[in-house]
Amino acid sequence: MRNETIRSAIIQLLPQIAVACENDHVALIDRDSVALIGRELKEINCKRLLEIGSGYGYSALSFLQFMLENAGAETLHITTIERLQCRWERTRDYIMQAGAKDCICCVLGEAPEAFSYLDNTQKWDCIFMDAAMGRYGDFWLQLKDSLGPDGIFIADNINLHGVLDQPIAALPRRHRTMAKRLKEFLQMLECDEVWQYERYDYGEGLLVIRRRKQEKL
Ligand SMILES: C[S@@+](CC[C@H](N)C(=O)[O-])C[C@H]1O[C@@H](n2cnc3c(N)ncnc32)[C@H](O)[C@@H]1O
């Protein structure tokens, strides 16, 4: 299918997916975060994107729509990983409906075990994390070397439940381990000579990590 045909199919489908997510209590990415990520994807001319946490495929299809805006005849590719079979099936159905099956591969599996199914012969332009917040630091360490020269790593919901802006002791016990791990992740990045990060207050908080200018490969 031609890029424009897929883009218009996605644009028509997204409101329907958003309603299904709301009805089924499946969290989905915030509108402002999608817009910010869309600008980033265009800026780096993203051709290959890896997502952890498909939900119903709303974010993966939104990202493809931005990537298609920039694309000529080049191949675009998104791999999205989802651990729940019912959500993986829904994502696959929506991808089919959008005519995007040649661009998006939805993997049924749990991160990080599912990383072993990935094709590591090519670098990712963008890695988007939207699952298992307490493990973002581990995922980062496992995946950062698979980012290309202008590659970016984006993590969503980094301030869910106020975990970054409150002292750990003030948080409910069930959020403390996750908060501690996220804070350690950011501290690790602060000392990193190759990578730097920016935090945005969109939605529940977005983290964008990119190489420092002098560290471009
Ligand atoms: C916030 S939802 C994703 C929403 C989606 N990115 C969007 O904006 O449309 C998070 C999803 O990640 C899945 N998930 C949670 N932990 C996971 C893991 N370790 N590996 C793969 N998927 C996971 C959940 O089942 C859930 O569907």
Task: Describe the 3D structure.
The protein has helices spanning 3-24, 31-43, 58-70, 85-97, 136-143, 173-190; strands spanning 48-52, 77-82, 104-108, 124-129, 147-156, 195-200, 206-211. A hairpin with a 5-residue loop joins β6 (195-200) and β7. 40% of the residues lie in helices and 20% in strands. It contains six helices and seven strands; from the N terminus they run ααβαβαββαβαββ. The chain is of the alpha/beta class and 217 residues long. α2 packs parallel to α3 (58-70). The N and C termini lie far apart (34 Å). The chain has one domain (3-215): 3-Layer(aba) Sandwich (Rossmann fold), CATH 3.40.50.150.
Tell me the layout of helices and strands.
Elements: H1 3-24, H2 31-43, E1 48-52, H3 58-70, E2 77-82, H4 85-97, E3 104-108, E4 124-129, H5 136-143, E5 147-156, H6 173-190, E6 195-200, E7 206-211
Parallel strand pairs: 1-2, 1-4, 2-3, 4-5
Antiparallel strand pairs: 5-7, 6-7
Helix pairs in contact: 1-3, 2-3
The structure holds S-adenosylmethionine.
Give the key terms.
single chain; 217 residues; alpha/beta; Rossmann fold; seven-stranded mixed beta sheet; 6 helices; globular; binds S-adenosylmethionine
